[in-house]
Write a structure and sequence with these properties.
223 residues; mainly alpha; globular; disordered C terminus
């Protein structure tokens, strides 16, 4: 893949700058207390320019996690066993403290998540983003009804696991004290998905979701 050109790099820098300025203001004053005009003034751009980059105020915040929107679909395409690939990916995220797993105690991460989960408008907009993630994953899994049902369950599992981790850490628990439970919960959740959906859920398959093996169940593999 070729490197992005100068124009694209400048565009991405502007996205990042506007988002960073906005999030800083929202953290300081609250999302509802800051107007789009105030963000534009702080970023030294016009309001119409800001709206060209971010059509909705909420998108200024969600830009920070926008790169995860097609992550599940990309991971599922990496192998013939999508659930196992997603399980490994989530566990690797827990290991490195990826903020998207909720297992991160950095003050800036906790503050961002507090803003995100504590603002109804952002929660509503985040669900729209999750719906797009779900649609992309469903397409990767074949695009039929069974694939859409599977994608809905997978995205819900990842969201709930991450939210539980964040809630515990935000309540004052240490990351290292939560880590073991987080890994065990993820293993159980993905084992449940494998048992219910089957590891024969083929990427791009148009056929039904089948069971995994003669018993129709599958536990998480080692590694």
């Amino acid at each position: 893949m070729s490197a992005p050109g100068l124009r694209e790099r400048k565009k991405q820098r502007m996205f990042q700058t506007l988002s960073d300025v906005a999030v800083e203001l929202f953290l300081e004053k609250g999302f509802d207390a800051v107007s789009v005009a105030e963000v534009a003034a702080a970023a030294e751009v016009s309001k119409p320019t800001l709206f060209r980059y971010f059509p909705a105020k909420e998108d200024l915040v969600l830009h920070r996690i926008a790169d995860h929107e097609d992550e599940a679909a990309r991971v599922a395409r990496e192998g013939p066993a999508p659930i196992e690939a997603l399980r490994r990916h989530f566990l690797a995220g827990l290991e490195r403290g990826d903020p998207v797993t909720g297992l991160n105690g950095h003050p800036a991460v906790l503050a961002f998540h507090r803003l995100l989960y504590g603002t109804p408008a952002l929660v509503a907009r985040m669900h729209t983003q999750l719906e797009r993630s779900e649609a992309a994953l469903a397409e990767a899994l074949g695009g039929n009804l069974e694939a859409r049902l599977a994608a809905g369950q997978i995205i819900a599992v990842q969201r709930i696991l991450a939210l539980e981790n964040w809630r515990r850490i935000a309540a004052g628990e240490r990351v290292e004290d939560v880590r073991g439970d987080a890994v065990a919960a993820a293993e159980r959740a993905f084992a449940g998905l494998a048992a219910g959906l089957g590891e024969r859920l083929a990427v791009g398959s148009s056929g039904p979701v089948g069971p995994s093996g003669p018993s129709g169940t599958a536990g998480p593999s080692a590694g």
